[in-house]
């Protein structure tokens, strides 16, 4: 028993998880998310690194990141900043280039995604050998905090339309808390052309097209940015445009 | 095949079948009952789908989990993190 446990440990240690954190003006949240990541990865024993991709934040996010690097080590906190805000897809490409792990975790740096789910993602991935594991707010005990009725209605409505039109085989397409095998993420980012919410949707749709397997883990999404209208008319219109584009082209 | 093409194909097939039965295009001499039932089918199915959609979305909104515990836990951990980082020398 002890012998086989030792063998399993070795295999686990051979896996390394690179967390990509694209940041823009996250001076307040970055230390907190890093602390949580260090806590949960530390407890789980998995090998990891955190790659901070700061897009020239004017609020000093990079300076905070440098302090964190001194505290936790530059093997654990890797800084790969860029000169200006260049978008998520290119941030992933940039991050992948410098990732030394064989798995990549993408997540938001604003604490809406909680690192406590990462060990669950990893466990799920190992269970099914999945090419990607997606955090879902819509199934199991997944959920949200801080959303009013309007936001919930729009979210569920949009998801329903997406399910009907695209039949994607995943319950949460606009979510951005995911674990990918590195080569899978590389291939998918190459092929995706959309922006914003639709980019995350396109990743899942293309993954299905290429025959990749997708696992799901329920997550809680804690929205702390109160009062900010993140789902205005413009966003809904561009979402629908993107959805119809995917409908017509995939 | 794109999803759009799948839908167009599906709708065409259903449309042709409906047209055949309703307007007796193949001169099959089907009983009148078939035609009577088939004729309003498209509208009927749309209405059924509409009701299903509303019911499903309504149900999902009503049962959308509110993660109170998660929010509380996060608040507590944020405080813990700030204290610990200050100890470790972080200047925020």
UniProtKB/TrEMBL annotation, chain B:
Role: Stabilizer subunit of the dolichol-phosphate mannose (DPM) synthase complex; tethers catalytic subunit to the ER.
Principal cellular location given in the protein's record? endoplasmic reticulum
Give the transmembrane ranges: 43-62
* Species: Pygocentrus nattereri (Red-bellied piranha)
User: In this entry, which stretches build a coiled coil?
Assistant: 64-91
Keyword annotations for this protein, in alphabetical order, are: Coiled coil, Endoplasmic reticulum, Membrane, Transmembrane, Transmembrane helix
Identify its protein family.
Belongs to the DPM3 family.
The listed locations are: Endoplasmic reticulum membrane
Q: Give GO cellular component annotations, separated by semicolons.
A: dolichol-phosphate-mannose synthase complex; endoplasmic reticulum membrane
Q: How does it sit in the membrane?
A: Multi-pass membrane protein
Q: In which pathway does it act?
A: Protein modification; protein glycosylation
Example GO biological process term? Answer: GPI anchor biosynthetic process
The protein's name in its UniProt record: Dolichol-phosphate mannosyltransferase subunit 3
Q: Which domain of life is it from?
A: Eukaryota
Self-association or partners: how does it assemble?
Component of the dolichol-phosphate mannose (DPM) synthase complex.
């Amino acid at each position: 028993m002890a012998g086989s446990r030792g063998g399993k440990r070795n295999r686990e240690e051979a896996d390394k998880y690179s967390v990509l954190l694209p940041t823009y003006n996250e001076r307040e949240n970055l230390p907190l998310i890093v602390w949580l990541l260090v806590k949960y990865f530390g407890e789980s024993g998995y090998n990891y690194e955190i790659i901070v991709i700061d897009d020239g934040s004017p609020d000093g996010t990079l300076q905070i990141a440098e302090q964190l690097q001194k505290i936790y080590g530059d093997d654990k906190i890797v800084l790969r900043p860029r000169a200006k805000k260049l978008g998520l897809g290119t941030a992933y490409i940039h991050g992948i280039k410098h990732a030394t792990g064989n798995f990549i975790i993408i997540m938001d740096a604003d604490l809406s995604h909680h690192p406590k789910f990462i060990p669950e993602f990893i466990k799920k991935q190992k269970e099914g050998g999945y090419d990607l594991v997606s955090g879902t707010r819509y199934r199991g005990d997944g959920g949200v905090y801080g959303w009013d009725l309007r936001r919930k209605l729009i979210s569920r409505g949009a998801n329903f339309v997406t399910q009907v039109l695209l039949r994607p085989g995943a319950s949460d397409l606009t979510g951005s808390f995911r674990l990918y095998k590195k080569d899978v993420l590389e291939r998918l980012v190459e092929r995706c052309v959309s922006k914003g919410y639709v980019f995350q949707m396109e990743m899942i749709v293309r993954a299905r097209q290429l025959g990749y397997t997708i696992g799901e883990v329920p997550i809680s999404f804690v929205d702390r940015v109160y009062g900010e209208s993140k789902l205005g008319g413009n966003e809904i219109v561009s979402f629908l445009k993107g959805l119809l584009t995917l409908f017509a082209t995939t | 095949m794109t999803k759009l093409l799948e839908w167009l194909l599906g709708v065409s097939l259903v449309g042709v079948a409906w047209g055949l039965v309703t307007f007796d295009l193949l001169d099959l001499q089907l009983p009148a009952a078939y035609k009577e039932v088939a004729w309003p089918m498209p509208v009927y199915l749309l209405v059924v789908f509409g009701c299903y959609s509303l019911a499903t979305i309504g149900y999902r909104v009503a049962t959308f989990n509110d993660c109170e515990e998660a929010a509380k836990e996060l608040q507590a951990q944020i405080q813990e993190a700030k204290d610990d980082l200050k100890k470790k020398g972080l200047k925020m």
